[in-house]
Amino acid sequence: MTEYIPSTTEWVRDQVELYEKSNGQEGYELRGLPVIIVTHRGRRTGAIRKTPLMRVKHHNTYVLVASMGGAPKNPVWYYNLIESEKVELRDRDHVFMAKIRLVNNAEERAQVWAAAVEAYPPYEDYQDRTTRCIPIFIAEPILDE
Fold it and tell me: For the segment 21-72, what is each residue's pLDDT rounded down to a tens digit?
C-alpha cells in the first residue's frame, strides 16, 4: 500500500482531514464556496497526496486551476499532475477516478477559464497578480471504473 503524506500546510491538511472524516458533510466549503479533494501521486516520492481545490464544473468535467493565489510559480501539485494520466476526485461523498489533461488550446482555455472565474471570481485577480499563465487541467470522470 502506498503511503499517504499529508500536506505540510496546516489549513490544507485540516481541510482534507475534515472533508474525508465527515464524508463530505463538513469541510466541503472554503471561503464560503464548494471544494473538491484531488488525490494524486507525488512525482518524486510516489506517495499519495491530497489537495483541496475550488469546485469548478464545466459540462460533465471538472476544471482544476493551478492558481496558487496568483503566486509567481506553479503549485507543487501541478507538477504531479503533469506526470499523471488520472487522479481520484472527491466531490462531497462522491469519489471517482478521472482522466486528466492540461488545457493547451486557446479557445478551450477561454471557455474553461470563464467557468472557473464564474465559480470562483478571485481567479481573475490571481491571474492579474502573476506573469505566468495559470495552468488549467480538465478532469473527466472515468465511468467504467
Answer: 999 999 999 989 999 999 999 999 999 999 999 999 999 999 999 999 999 9
Instruction: Encode pLDDT of 120-143 as tens digits.
Output: 999 999 999 999 999 999 999 998
94 contact partners, CB below 8 Å, separation of at least 6: 24
CA distances from 29 to 36, 37, 83 (A): 9, 11, 28
For domain 10-141, which CATH number applies: 3.10.100.10, 2.30.110.10, 2.30.30.30, 3.30.200.20? 2.30.110.10
How much is the pTM? 0.95
Distance (Å, rounded) from C-alpha 139 to C-alpha 87?
Answer: 8
User: What is the C-alpha to C-alpha distance for residues 140 and 19, in angstroms, rounded to an integer?
Assistant: 22
Amino acid in the structure at residue 84 = S
Domains of the chain, by residue range, sit at 10-141
Contact between 38 and 64 (Cβ < 8 Å)? yes
HSE (side-chain half, CA atoms, 13 Å) at 101: 10
- Spatial distance between the Cα atoms of 141 and 96, rounded to a whole number of angstroms: 7
